[in-house]
Amino acid sequence: MKIAILGYGVVGSGAYEVAQAAHNIEVKRVLYKRPIDELGDIVTTEYEDILKDEEIELVAECIGGLHPAYEYVSAALKSGKHVVTPNKNLVAAYWDELHDLAREHGAEFRYTASAGGGIPWLFNLQRQSRSDDILSISGIVNGTCNYILDTMHNEPVDFAEILAKAQELGYAEKDPTADIGGFDTQRKCVISANLAFGTSISEEDVPVFGIQNITAGDIKYFNEHGYTCKLLMNAGQTETGAYAYVEPTLVSRGALESSVPANNNLISLTGNHIGTLSFYGQGAGKYPTGTSVIQDVLDIENGWKFSDKSEKNDVSVDNRLEAHRYYIRENGSCKITGPLSVTEAHRLASESSDEHFFMAGIRE
Ligand SMILES: NC(=O)C1=CN([C@@H]2O[C@H](COP(=O)(O)OP(=O)(O)OC[C@H]3O[C@@H](n4cnc5c(N)ncnc54)[C@H](OP(=O)(O)O)[C@@H]3O)[C@@H](O)[C@H]2O)C=CC1
Ligand SMILES: N[C@@H](CC=O)C(=O)O
């Protein structure tokens, strides 16, 4: 299969290199803003060169962001080309539209790398959902935040310094606010929940609280009380719809999540029949993510199709009945609350006048 890769940054260059070792794939074109010496004349600055090339059956969009990624991906699907992307911004924001376009034009639209980086999480979630009722999903899905929190738990480091290191290692988003503010995790939660529950919730449905205000003092308190702090996504079915939220969470030292080091992710699903399945591995970085992109390409090349259900479950998110205790630090003093609903805790966070406010849910 002849393919084109759009963008040649961390993931695009990783995908290109991994593709060299994959049988049956030829990278015919790479779209980039300027020449790339080692790639020679396969590089183009004109997307039309790719779109109009009938030999190119698949476009791997690795530019990131919403525009022009959206325009490029839509045009590829409309012309019947398959699309693979690690771009969670795009997938979460245009969920219905891009799936509809793919279905209308008989193209495959796959985005395994958009949540879990190198882990075949979405692939297996979708696979499991064919024969099971997925009751809940949860986990660590941001490599940058896990790298920061893991390092802070183990050594006295400055937050800004360790974030800069995560950027240097290629884990962070172009604007790392997306990582530390929890928005990247929120998008991955949207994508995972939509696949799990066959629905189309959006980013606005998922309240988010990030880790940008965590301090060495908070971590010291957690270490002394036997807790590890992780940024988790959570979503599940309820009798009336679903809950879904993202927040720093204190887990006990014995919990699986507690021992997840560096840029790794740990993501779990609980199905009615299968019980709980957990997936672990590198959630960010050039080769893990590049590999995941090329695995999707190979699945399409092999003719593997997931039946994309066109009928949707209309699920509404309500976090009012989802309650647990919280660690809250406000205006310099910290406390452990009694059970608070997620709705109430996130309201407190958004209404606090303390710009350094921090909270973390406590998993019992
Ligand atoms: N890094 C990671 O570990 C992971 C990233 N992702 C996702 O993968 C996507 C790519 O991320 P990443 O590779 O890290 O980002 P990078 O910024 O490293 O790469 C993006 C590349 O696209 C190029 N580019 C931007 N706009 C255009 C354009 N209009 N035409 C041609 N090239 C363009 C950029 O060029 P220039 O540098 O010159 O601006 C850059 O080379 C994002 O959606 C990200 O969220 C998903 C999982 C993991
Ligand atoms: N910035 C993201 C990259 C992968 O999705 C992360 O740190 O997980």
TrEMBL record:
UniProt-annotated catalytic positions: 188 (proton donor)
Pathway involvement of the protein, from the record: Amino-acid biosynthesis; L-threonine biosynthesis; L-threonine from L-aspartate: step 3/5; Amino-acid biosynthesis; L-methionine biosynthesis via de novo pathway; L-homoserine from L-aspartate: step 3/3
Catalytic reactions of this protein: L-homoserine + NADP(+) = L-aspartate 4-semialdehyde + NADPH + H(+)
Binding site residues for NADPH: 88
UniProt keyword terms in alphabetical order: Amino-acid biosynthesis, Methionine biosynthesis, NADP, Oxidoreductase, Sodium, Threonine biosynthesis
EC numbers: 1.1.1.3
Record GO terms (molecular function): homoserine dehydrogenase activity; NADP binding
Coiled-coil ranges from the UniProt annotation: none
Binding-site list for L-homoserine: 173
Binding site for NADP(+): 7-12
UniProt family annotation: Belongs to the homoserine dehydrogenase family.
Protein name, UniProt field: Homoserine dehydrogenase
Organism of origin: Mogibacterium diversum
